Structures are given as C-alpha cells and as structure tokens.
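Supplementary Note 3. Input sequence used for the single-chain structure prediction.
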Amino acid sequence: MVVQGQLCQIIHGLSTATTADLPMLQIHLHGPVDVPSGAIRSTPIGSLPVTAFPAEAVAPLPPLPVTFDQAASALQSLPQCFFEPDGAFLMRFPPRGPAWCVEGELYDNGRQLHYVTLRLRCDSDAPRQPSTASEPYPFSEFLHCFGWPERRLTAQWVEGGLMARLDDFLPWFRQWSETPAARARLY
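The predicted structure, written as discrete structure tokens, is reproduced below.
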C-alpha cells in the first residue's frame, strides 16, 4: 500500500532516505475571498511572519476561477506532470536530479473547481529560484493552471486553519523554502 508522500518517491525515484525526514507543506488553494478587516493579523507560521486570517472568517470558501476541465487540461500540458482522470496529479521540478515534488488533487463542485489540495516536499538540495522571480519555485511552474495571476487566489495552511491571499502567501513560501530551520517545523 502506498502512503501519502511515497508516490513521488516511487514514480520519480526520490530516495526514501532523502525524503523521509523532509517536512511536507500541505495547503489548499481556493478562489478569491473578501476578508473582514478585523480578521487579518500578522502571525508566525514556521517561525516566519505572514499576514493571515482564520478560515472561518471567510466561510463558505469560494471556488477557483476555473473549471475542473480547464485546470486538468492546463496541468496535462506541463511536461513534468502525471495527471489521472480523477483529478490526482504529481509533478516534479526539475525533471531530473534533486527536486521539488508536488502531489495534489482537484475537487470540483459540478461547475467550477471547488479547491485544490497540494502537498509539497523537496530534496534538501533542490533548486531555488532567484529572488528576482515573481513567484517562488516551484509555484512559478504551475500556478497559471488555476487562473493565477489574472485572477486572485487564496492559500490555506491545512494544519493550522489559517488562510492568506496568494500575494501574501508566496513571499512567506519563498522564505520558508529558503530557510531549513523554518522548513523543519511548521506548527
């Protein structure tokens, strides 16, 4: 039986010894939200500050601005994406050597993409994108599949129940991905 996080090891050959001790970042992507001003606060996640808000402040959570089929088609066009018809997908950036592994699932509500789950891991020596890039690696490789940057998106840390606009999440992620001590503990 394959457990969560092992699929990337099996398909792309990441060694168990390399990835077993690496933290996995679990997030959901949602559509744009209108946040009450009193709900927004600066809080540390993984010892790094981020402007966030509790998920219950914006419930119910809105769908993404694309359909399941649009997101599926965009993901399938990525050469490093393995996509299943049920919406499960796996990507590896770059295709060879030390890498980021992104596992996820698309969930629709019949009309639009309700949300996307993402689980990210990386080898300790996986490439980092230069800080001059607008989106941190590996998000720069696949966010367009979900309507970004033309449409606003929201990220939710699954473990903590906090959310952030993608504009606030991406700088936090860049710091997190470049700071081994921060990656070692999220909550």
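Confidence is low (pLDDT under 50) at residues 1-21. The radius of gyration is 16 Å.
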